[in-house]
């Protein structure tokens, strides 16, 4: 004899629960990674690479202005890092080519 089994909501939730856990984990992982990259980008660009344009001219001391000009004369220019550069240098170092910014 055959017995028909009708799935109900509880069985459906238990069957799809593993898949939902994996999807939830993946979305949370990439969300945390995204915010980590944005945090690093903000810290590097605003705190470390703050350039002459970020300050008012009156706040610059002559020594700082001279140091900025000497760095520009040497060809060292502090361009801001992009989102994908942070991703490449921090999390995908095998794809980062040797360059002056690394």
Secondary-structure element order, N to C? HHH
- Basic shape: rod-shaped
Separation, N- and C-terminal Cα atoms: 71 Å
What share of the residues lie within helices? 55-70%
What's the average pLDDT?
77
Could you give the count of β-strands?
0
User: Which ranges are low-confidence, i.e. pLDDT below 50, for 5 or more consecutive residues?
Assistant: none
Note the beta-strand portion: under 5%
Number of helices: 3
**What class, by secondary structure content?**
mainly alpha
Rg, Cα atoms, Å:
26 Å
Biggest sheet record:
none
Can you describe what's shown?
- The chain has helices spanning 9-48, 62-73, 83-91.
- The chain is mostly helical.
- The longest helix has 40 residues, at 9-48.
- The N and C termini lie far apart (71 Å).
Structure summarized in a few sentences:
It contains three helices and no strands. It has helices at 9-48, 62-73, 83-91.
Supply the key terms.
mainly alpha, 60% helix, rod-shaped, 102 residues, 0% strand
Give the helices and strands, then pairings.
Layout: H1 9-48, H2 62-73, H3 83-91
């Amino acid at each position: 004899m055959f017995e028909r089994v009708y799935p109900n909501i509880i069985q459906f939730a238990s069957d799809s629960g593993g898949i939902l856990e994996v999807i939830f984990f993946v979305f949370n992982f990439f969300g945390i990674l995204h915010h980590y990259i944005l945090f690093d980008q903000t810290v590097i660009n605003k705190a470390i690479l703050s350039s002459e344009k970020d300050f008012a001219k009156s706040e610059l001391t002559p020594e700082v202005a001279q140091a900025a000009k000497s760095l520009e004369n040497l060809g060292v220019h502090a361009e801001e890092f992009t989102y994908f550069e942070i991703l490449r240098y921090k999390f995908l170092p095998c794809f980062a080519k040797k360059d002056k910014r690394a």
